[in-house]
Design a protein that fits this description.
The chain is of the alpha+beta class. The chain has helices at residues 2-16, 55-70, 115-119, 140-150, 162-172, 218-225; strands spanning 18-22, 25-29, 32-33, 37-38, 41-43, 52-53, 76-78, 101-105, 127-128, 133-134, 155-160, 181-183, 190-195. The structure holds zinc ion (ZN).
Length: 252
């Protein structure tokens, strides 16, 4: 009886969790906090309070931590997810608004990951930008983590530096999940996971599906030839985007 009662309390909580609007103009209801640490992961820079996400994303991250541990990889470092109610960040990236985006750093955790160390941790660049090659820090451990991250079907896309995408193409050939790895600016010290809109989230605006195929051919080549970053990312969304009505007055 008591167990059933518990379930009744729990079900509406899940039903009410929702991603509203688009990845770069939206908010979230009933977000869940990713615990500060768990099997195979640590949250870094938690003072920013950007560790809230939709239940499927929290589940995805915890699951990825477990898979990383099973593969004997070092614990992954989870950085920005979203604010508790979502919406735009005061500084930093423009997406991460609906609780479906998460940044995962590619460097290894510090040997003694005290809360203070995890708070003040610095990023390690996987790209030698002067020579436009991967740096010595990008090794099999990073490749394996990105591969594990991309294999989950809840993933819409993962943004990585073009050189990292290239390395993944060379390592994994024709794997169908390679198509989810999207070359993008930045993303040389972390990768950015974006999940699909969760089923039943009617106000969540999906992004167009990625083209079929691995994306390792001509499209990637155009990025690799664009070492100076001349490929336009298109018109940038305003820093204060127009939010869906449901989000107005909700986000802080
Ligand atoms: Zn990001």
């Amino acid at each position: 009886m008591i167990r059933w009662f518990g379930l009744l309390l729990w079900l509406p909580a899940l039903a009410w969790a929702q991603a509203i609007g688009g990845y770069a103009a939206g908010c979230q209801l009933n977000a869940q906090a990713l615990p500060a640490s768990g099997p195979g992961f640590y949250v870094i820079r938690s003072a920013r309070e950007r560790f809230y996400g939709q239940p499927p994303l929290i589940d995805y991250l915890q699951n990825l931590g477990i898979k990383a541990r099973q593969a004997e990889l070092p614990p992954m470092l989870v950085a920005d997810i979203a604010k508790q109610r979502g919406g735009p960040f005061e500084y930093g990236h423009r997406s991460h608004q609906t609780g479906l985006d998460a940044d995962i750093w590619l460097r290894s955790p510090p040997a003694q990951p005290s809360p203070q160390r995890l708070e003040n941790i610095t990023a390690v660049d996987m790209v030698d930008h002067d020579n436009y090659i991967l740096s010595r820090h990008f090794r099999d451990q990073q490749r394996q983590l990105i591969a594990l991250a991309a294999q989950d079907k809840r993933v819409s896309r993962i943004f990585v530096h073009p050189l990292i995408k290239d390395a993944m193409c060379k390592a994994y050939g024709e794997a169908d999940w390679l198509g989810r790895l999207r070359p993008w600016f930045g993303h040389s010290s972390h990768f950015h996971v974006r999940l699909h809109c969760p089923p039943g989230n009617k106000q969540c605006q999906p992004q167009a599906a990625v083209a079929s195929g691995t994306g390792c051919g001509r499209e990637l080549a155009s990025w690799l030839n664009d070492k100076t970053g001349a490929i336009s990312s298109g018109a940038r969304a305003p820093f204060r985007p127009t939010l869906p009505t449901r989000c107005v007055g909700w986000v802080r």
